[in-house]
Amino acid sequence: MAWRDNYRNRIFRGHVIDVLRSLPERIVQCVVTSPPYWRQRVYEGQQDVVWRGEEDCKHEWVQISDFEKECPRCGGFSSPYGLESQLDCLAWARNEPPCGRCYICHTREIFSHVRRVLKPDGVVWLNIGDTYAGSGSGGKDFISRKGWGYCQRYNRRGNQLKPKDLCLVPYRLVLALQADGWFVRSDVVWAKRVFVEKEENDIGAGMPENVNDRPIGAHEFVFLLTIRKDYFYDWLGYAPISKYVDGKGIGWESDVRKRMCDVWLIRPASFPGHHFAVMPPKLAEICIKLATSEAGECPHCGKNWKRKIEIIGKAPASAWSPKSGRKVHLRAESYSSSIRTKMVTVYTGEVFEPQCKCQNNKPIPNIVLDPFAGSGTTLMVAKQLGRDYIGIEISSEYVELAQKRLAGVGLSLPLDF
């Protein structure tokens, strides 16, 4: 359909809700995004948006906190998303609509519009990090010398948050979205650094913390959200592989595809540009491959082409790892003798088939949406994987930054909203 092509491979600059309202319904197959974390950073460029109030009001703004303003004439509320002074009013727990002032309610509003543009079988990957309430021990908020980073350490408040409390932002947010009707299908742990029992040491990399009364934080969550219980998920799209060698290493070999677990050890990304919250490309790659069709979708009805999955045989529950050359278990139920003799099914799925009977249905790429495009990592990876994308970003500086990163992948100019 022609209207689909009008939105492919574009970055829209503007407030995320305004842009989402302008998009047609049900055009997005997959969302991979990391919204601004609560009270952690001030991002570059103009970020103030009006969340509530009358559109035709000539607002007379009154400053009510460091980043928040309200209009006494219409009750309008203005604040950069992510810098709200209140974390959670618990409106979701009372089955109430968003209050229009706290971080959780603003996120609920945004995701109600994400739901509208998501295809019925679409998938959302939501990366969100946590933070601590201020210790009250003094000190000032950090402002970088370049003026583009700002960490709100001592001005966080919320429901019954005490000094040094973990704010539990991911838990509050996903419970609120679940109350709004989203299915929470998985809480993937993005581990930047992990302790390995056998090695008595940790591996990976993460931001250092000068704390002596708790473990250092080295993980974030990536939630898998859907709008219905049945949805598109290509488990063979990104499947770890072990090499199976029959007998004592003499005989036939086969790649045994394993299903992804829900803990991913991925090093944080480094990026020289003025954006210090960049998603690792590998994280975006895994999410996109699992939630989109490699072949694409029907240009008429939007149904995805799916793999024709075939069973090619059985293999023992242990296999030879192609990296280490030693036996590793395909399933981790136990290390008892029973697991060593357990057989698992080996699948293949290299052929894709249409799921509709439309005529002239040569597939077109799925659309991947990032409503907080930032430096453009999700968009860049989507294009490299042969998918199309839609990016939304409020900062003109970050739109320009994303365009520079995407320039080598073949893109159109950004479209201002």
What can you see in these coordinates?
Helix content is 17%, strand content 27%. The protein is built from 8 helices and 25 strands. It has helices at 2-5, 16-22, 103-117, 169-179, 281-291, 337-341, 377-384, 396-406; strands at 10-13, 28-33, 48-52, 62-63, 69-70, 77-80, 118-128, 142-143, 150-151, 183-191, 193-196, 201-204, 219-226, 241-245, 253-257, 263-265, 306-307, 310-316, 318-320, 327-329, 343-348, 352-353, 367-370, 388-393, 415-416. Strands 16-10-13-7-2-23-24-1-25 form a 9-stranded mixed sheet, sandwiched between helices. Strands 3-6-5-4 form a 4-stranded antiparallel sheet, with no helix packed on it. It has a two-stranded antiparallel sheet with strand order 8-9. Strand 23 (367-370), helix 7 and strand 24 (388-393) form a beta-alpha-beta unit. Helix 2 runs parallel beside helix 3. The two termini are 22 Å apart. The model is unreliable at 136-154, 248-252, 329-339 and 411-417 (pLDDT under 50).
Q: What is this structure, in a nutshell?
A:
The chain is of the alpha/beta class. It has helices at 2-5, 16-22, 103-117, 169-179, 281-291, 337-341, 377-384, 396-406; strands spanning 10-13, 28-33, 48-52, 62-63, 69-70, 77-80, 118-128, 142-143, 150-151, 183-191, 193-196, 201-204, 219-226, 241-245, 253-257, 263-265, 306-307, 310-316, 318-320, 327-329, 343-348, 352-353, 367-370, 388-393, 415-416.
What is the terminal separation in angstroms? 22 Å
Strand-pairing-aware structural class: alpha/beta
Q: Could you state the CATH homologous superfamily of the largest domain?
A: Vaccinia Virus protein VP39
Strand order of the largest sheet: 16-10-13-7-2-23-24-1-25
